[in-house]
Write a structure and sequence with these properties.
It is globular and about 45 Å long. The protein contains 5 helices and 5 strands, in the order αβαββαββαα. The longest helix has 21 residues, at about 15-35. The protein is about 40% helix and about 20% strand. It has helices at about 15-35, 55-70, 100-115, 155-160, 165-175; strands spanning about 40-45, 75-85, 90-95, 120-130, 130-135.
């Protein structure tokens, strides 16, 4: 096992699902109470049971500081919530004064700008017809996420479990250590 994953509280599927439900509820509340703004939900894609520890949290905060400077250059925004110490992984939420399509282009550019940024999952959400809607890359004609290991579509590799958790963790550790 890689040293990055030697520390932290192992998570089971029920904890991850409970966290997802909490995140979705917050996202729905944010888009409902701020329908004229775009919501960004920032988290990391970390394989395996260890989703958070000091190194992962520091990586998250350091990289988001860079992202916030890029965001600030184009839009007014405010951070509305952060869950840095959640065992299920660090998360941060933003309200942005800008159209979801343009914000999605910015978040995708950040995710693809450097290899370690590919660990970020920056969901862009808005309110449409009374519902919270997540903007996808493909809606904007942008390429789908690719696998960190082989370059195939990431969802295809995840669904087929093409790579072991250990292989993915080694790649994630390498990306974080070299960032």
């Amino acid at each position: 096992m890689n040293n990055l994953f030697a520390n932290g509280t192992p998570q089971q599927i029920p904890e991850v699902l409970t966290n997802r439900d909490h995140r979705v509820a917050l996202q729905n509340q944010l888009t409902k109470s701020h329908p004229d703004q775009t919501v960004i939900a920032a988290k990391l894609n970390i394989p395996g049971p260890i989703k958070n520890n000091e190194t992962i949290k520091n990586f998250f905060v350091t990289k988001l500081t860079i992202f916030e400077k890029q965001l600030q250059a184009q839009y007014d925004f405010k951070m509305v919530e952060q869950w840095l110490d959640e065992s299920t992984g660090p998360e941060r939420f933003y309200l942005v004064d800008g159209p979801a399509e343009q914000v999605k282009q910015l978040t995708t550019a950040f995710e693809e700008a450097d290899a370690s940024n590919r660990l970020f999952d920056l969901d862009v959400l808005s309110r449409q017809a009374g519902q919270t809607v997540s903007m996808s890359r493909t809606e904007l004609g942008l390429p789908k996420r690719t696998c960190l290991i082989c370059g195939r579509p990431a969802k295809e590799c995840a669904r087929s479990r093409r790579h072991t958790v250990a292989e993915l963790q080694d790649r994630v550790a390498e990306l974080i250590e070299n960032s």
